[in-house]
Write a structure and sequence with these properties.
The complex is a heterodimer of chains A (about 270) and B (about 260). Chain A has about 270 residues and is an alpha/beta fold. Helix content of chain A is about 35%, strand content about 20%. Chain A contains seven helices and nine strands; from the N terminus they run βββαββαααβαβαββα. In chain A, helix 5 links the parallel strand 6 and strand 7. Chain A is globular and about 55 Å long. Chain B has about 260 residues and is mainly α. Chain B has a domain of about 140 residues: MetI-like fold, CATH 1.10.3720.10. Chain B is about 80% helix and about 0% strand. Chain B is built from ten helices and no strands. Chain B starts with a helix and ends in a 9-residue tail after the last helix. The mean pLDDT of chain B is about 85. Classes of the chains: A alpha/beta (about 270), B mainly alpha (about 260). At the A-B interface, strand 5 and helix 2 of A face helix 7 and helix 8 of B.
């Protein structure tokens, strides 16, 4: 099964990835390694899209290209576009990024870390306080403004990172396995809380994970990606209203089906 | 007793023990010309502080001269070292070429460097400055090089994803990561600098604390030699603990061990 429709940016598209190919040169033998092979996907406004795939399949590279951290040359093939949706001034799209590790600046307070993102995005200074308070409250860290990150637990640090990314009111929120470094109980709590946040802040999210259950529980749209070749081999919609329960039979069945699907692709490769 | 109070007691105690050993040794030696006891030295320091020394110069004048030379030379060595170290850390070309030279400078005995510097540049301010720059700069450069290498790339990526400009990158991402390296270079480098300045002064640069060591040493008046050494040590320790340590604990308030 290979669904790779030529995606066309609709009016409400926030991220449009078209036939994106990314190669790394291998210094050893002068050859090339294809990290991403003709990837196409569309994320619409307000949508929660997830890319699921095994470790090392190039998921993070894709997010990094969208975020502009990783370069992408046109000769490698395809294109990536991010559209600016906010009515406010500023022509460049706002991208919020939550990484696997919190990546906080430990020498700045919690508030300082969020202000770092706001200042980088040239958010008007008079709105900083309001944004900090609002989003810290949303991630359940009200009153921690003056605390330093190293005094917080791993889960709390990741909450600060989420607040930092949300505070800039991003057109697209990129999340790269944000709960994979947390213990399962904390991760589960964080997924519930993220769902709450989704219903309040309604961000557009592109979420990368290797955890099928997490993807099914959180997403509207799932792109399944294989490694070698790094392709999207299936796209699925999850039509379950929020708030969801992980033990919901529909979600559970869908997860089982996706696991089967993955194994059939992996087996075919062996 | 709190750990803090305990620490202070231990420190004061060890100094007291050292003074007792000194005092006992002086009594056993029973030769004031060679090893005067602590009481005599304390009296000598006290008298010195209130009187003009040889050539009509007060001890404060000599301290000022030495401190002035130390600060200027130290500033020059720090600036050069930070510049060179960062360039090495960020540019491969400089890393390889300078990495071959720096060990040569680092292994050179300090006393030889001071000797050559005053020989080539004269027994004056320039001589002592060159000596300090020659010894301290490579040390600072190596420290900064390591700081630049240890920079966390994932934080730089994070900052770039939020579109932080260069000014913000430098102020909030680069400098805070380099600060521990700058401070360690600062404390160690400062200690090296005043020793080199004092050494250059004993070699014959006019005035300063080192000049006074030598002045009294030539006349073999040990109580004055020791008095000047102790005045010197107290002055530098006061700077180290009164000024630098305070700055440091302020700059690293974000570390959990510092925040009380």
């Amino acid at each position: 099964m290979n669904i790779q429709t030529e995606s066309v940016a609709a009016a409400n598209t926030v991220v449009a990835v078209n036939n994106l190919t990314k190669k790394f040169n291998l210094p050893m033998n002068g050859g090339e390694f294809v990290v991403l092979d003709s990837i196409s996907l569309n994320v619409n406004e307000g949508q929660f899209a997830a890319i699921v795939g095994p470790s090392g399949c190039g998921k993070s590279t894709l997010l990094n290209i969208i975020a502009g951290i990783e370069t992408h040359e046109s000769h490698e093939g395809g294109s990536v576009e991010v559209f600016h949706k906010s009515a406010e001034a500023g022509s460049t799209p706002r991208i919020g990024y939550v990484f696997q590790n919190a990546r906080l600046l430990n020498w700045l307070t919690v508030e300082g870390n969020i202000q770092f993102a706001l200042e980088s995005q040239q958010f008007p200074r008079e709105r900083w306080r309001e944004q900090v308070t609002k989003y810290l409250e949303m991630v359940g860290l009200e009153g921690q403004e003056k605390n330093f990150p190293l005094n917080l637990s791993g889960g709390m640090q990741q909450r600060v990172a989420i607040a930092r990314a949300l505070a800039i009111e991003p057109d697209i929120l990129l999340m790269d396995e944000p709960f994979s470094h947390l213990d399962e109980i904390t991760a589960r709590k964080m997924r519930f809380d993220l769902m709450e946040i989704l219903m309040r802040a309604k961000p557009t999210i592109l979420f990368v994970t290797h955890d099928l259950g997490e993807a099914v529980f959180l997403s509207d749209e799932i792109y399944m990606m294989s490694a070698k070749p790094a392709r999207i081999f299936k796209e699925i919609s999850v039509d379950v209203p929020r708030p969801r329960k992980p033990e919901d039979p529909v979600i559970f069945d869908l997860e089982k089906e996706l696991v089967r699907e993955f194994f059939s692709v992996l087996d075919a490769q062996d | 007793m709190s750990t803090r109070a305990r620490g202070i007691c231990l420190r004061v105690g060890s100094i007291v023990v050292m003074l007792i050993i000194w005092w006992a040794a002086a009594i056993l030696m029973a030769d004031v010309e060679v090893l005067p006891g602590p009481v005599l030295i304390a009296k000598t320091i006290w008298t010195n502080l209130w009187s003009l020394g040889p050539e009509g110069k007060s001890p404060y004048f000599h301290m000022g001269v030495t401190l002035g030379r130390t600060f200027i030379a130290f500033a020059a060595a720090m600036l050069a070292g930070i510049g060179i170290g960062l360039t090495m850390g960020l540019r491969k070309l400089f890393e390889h070429s300078l990495m071959a030279l720096i060990p040569l400078l680092l292994t050179m005995p300090t006393i030889l460097m001071v000797f050559l510097a005053v020989l080539w540049f004269g027994f004056n301010e320039v001589g002592s400055l060159v000596a300090v720059v020659g010894v301290v700069t490579p040390f600072v450069a190596v420290n900064m090089f390591e700081g630049a290498k240890a920079m966390d790339k994932s934080l730089i990526d994070m900052a770039k994803s939020f579109k932080a400009d260069n000014r913000m990158l430098i102020r909030k991402v680069y400098v805070p990561q380099l600060l521990p390296y700058i401070f360690s270079a600062f404390r160690f480098g400062f200690g090296m600098t005043w020793k080199i300045v004092a050494l250059a002064e004993t070699f014959g640069i006019k005035f300063g604390i080192g000049y006074m060591f030598f002045f009294w040493f030539e006349q073999f008046i040990m109580e004055q030699v020791l008095a000047w050494i102790i005045m010197f040590v107290i002055l530098m320790l006061a700077l180290e603990h009164g000024v630098f340590a305070r700055l440091e604990s302020k700059a690293f308030a974000w570390r959990p061990s510092h925040s009380l």
